[in-house]
Write a structure and sequence with these properties.
Elements lengths: L14 H13 L3 E4 L4 E4 L1 H6 L2 H18 L10 H8 L3 H13 L4 E3 L2 E3 L5 H7 L5
Helix pairs in contact: 1-3, 4-5
Length: about 130
């Protein structure tokens, strides 16, 4: 049976597009990206009113979005130092939080820093739900 004629092909999804759509849904109005400088910025209200966990996850999600837009300029990971700059949190808050988020399976540690794995997007989405 050819691939196009296979009825199971109706079950196949373009995960790249799903991830882009999901990222937009989670980040719109909360993060802005500067493509020229390849930097992520939290919207002031998100930076000031969210807890440290949400701020770090939003920054990492923003970095993932930036890496999808400009793969030649940005990787999807951030170092603890960059996370401190983006979130305004101190290192003694960021580093233990990164360890805890990693243990919880929300983020992964890579050579370039910490990142949100595609398979954990739904978990991270639940962790940063908006409080109206």
């Amino acid at each position: 049976m050819t691939e196009k004629g296979d009825p199971l092909m109706e079950l196949v999804a373009d995960t790249r597009q799903i991830n882009r759509d999901r990222l937009k849904e989670m980040l719109l109005g909360r993060v802005w990206l500067d493509i020229d400088t390849a930097t992520v910025h939290l919207v002031r209200e998100e930076r000031n009113e969210k807890g440290s966990k949400e701020a770090v996850l939003l920054a990492l999600l923003g970095q993932k979005a930036l890496s999808l837009l400009k793969p030649e300029k940005a990787v999807d990971a951030m170092t603890p130092k960059v996370l401190e700059e983006v979130t305004g949190l101190k290192g003694n808050t960021v580093r233990p939080l990164l360890k805890r988020l990693s243990e919880d399976g929300l983020i992964v540690r890579r050579m370039e820093g910490y990142a949100i794995h595609n398979a954990a997007l739904h978990l991270v989405g639940g962790a940063i739900t908006r409080k109206e």
